[in-house]
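F.,

This is the one I mentioned.
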């Protein structure tokens, strides 16, 4: 890559974790900050298609057709339908819309901010609508969840859907096939301004729902550092991972269960591996 400076885009860069990431990336190259506040380079409302299009147009206009790193940190936790519009559909629109610019880089990386709340089950109906890409259906489902007193499911459902999308997209020809690494970080409860604003009110519930052996709330810095690494040129071989940077919540609550599912092979693949194994033993 020579001396050419890397170009990064960070959404949600006007506050919290996104702002911490943008500040760290500024030491590594040019950062195009995006958000709703007046302190960012690009102001855009990602809950609406027009806002998503505006962000894409502005980012493309600022670059030379190349983007090296993307950190999708924009999100909200409210029990409202807008949460699914921003956290899932807005995030996917940015990732898909900037994929070609990433592919033009020699070492492109994208990383999404998920959540440790995905360790809990969400709304299956909302998840299905997201995976199908049906935003109208997802919004209608979210509105119904709010009306029936289940709005708390919307946030974690949006992040569960993101996890599914990252796993599927990361190994597709459009991403891995073009050398673009794509991962997600699922932070635990960390001491952002938004969390601390209501901490005394929410503390008892969160300590039970998402226990963190390393302490709650956790520090913002280590999560931001992890996101920066995953968006850096040093990360060229990790892709499709949902990394729980959560103070131990995942290990404490799920234990060894993630290791309960192993690879399964089709009959012809088993035959081919047996033949190759015998060939190696006799060669």
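My design for it:
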């Amino acid at each position: 890559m020579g001396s050419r400076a890397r170009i990064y885009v960070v959404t949600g860069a006007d506050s919290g974790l996104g702002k911490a990431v943008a500040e760290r990336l500024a030491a590594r190259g040019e950062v195009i900050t995006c958000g709703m506040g007046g302190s960012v380079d690009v102001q855009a409302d990602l809950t609406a298609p027009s806002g998503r299009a505006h962000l894409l147009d502005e980012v493309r206009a600022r670059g030379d057709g190349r983007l090296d790193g993307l950190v999708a940190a924009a999100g909200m936790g409210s029990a409202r339908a807008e949460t699914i519009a921003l956290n899932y559909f807005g995030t996917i629109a940015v990732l898909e819309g900037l994929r070609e610019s990433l592919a033009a880089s020699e070492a492109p990386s994208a990383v999404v901010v998920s959540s440790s709340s995905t360790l809990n089950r969400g709304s299956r109906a909302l998840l299905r609508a997201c995976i199908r890409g049906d935003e109208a259906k997802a919004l209608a489902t979210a509105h119904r969840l709010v009306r029936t007193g289940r709005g708390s499911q919307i946030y974690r459902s949006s992040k569960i859907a993101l996890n599914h999308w990252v796993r599927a997209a990361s190994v597709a020809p459009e991403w891995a096939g073009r050398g673009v690494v794509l991962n997600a970080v699922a932070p635990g409860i960390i001491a952002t301004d938004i969390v601390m604003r209501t901490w005394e009110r929410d503390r008892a519930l969160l300590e039970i729902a998402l226990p963190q052996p390393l302490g709650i709330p956790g520090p913002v810095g280590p999560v931001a550092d992890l996101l920066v690494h995953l968006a850096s040129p040093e990360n060229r071989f990790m892709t499709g991972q949902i990394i729980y940077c959560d103070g131990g919540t995942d290990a404490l609550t799920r234990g060894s269960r993630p290791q309960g599912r192993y690879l399964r092979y089709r009959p012809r693949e088993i035959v081919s591996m047996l033949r190759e194994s015998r060939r190696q033993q006799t060669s």
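The radius of gyration is 20 Å.

Talk soon.
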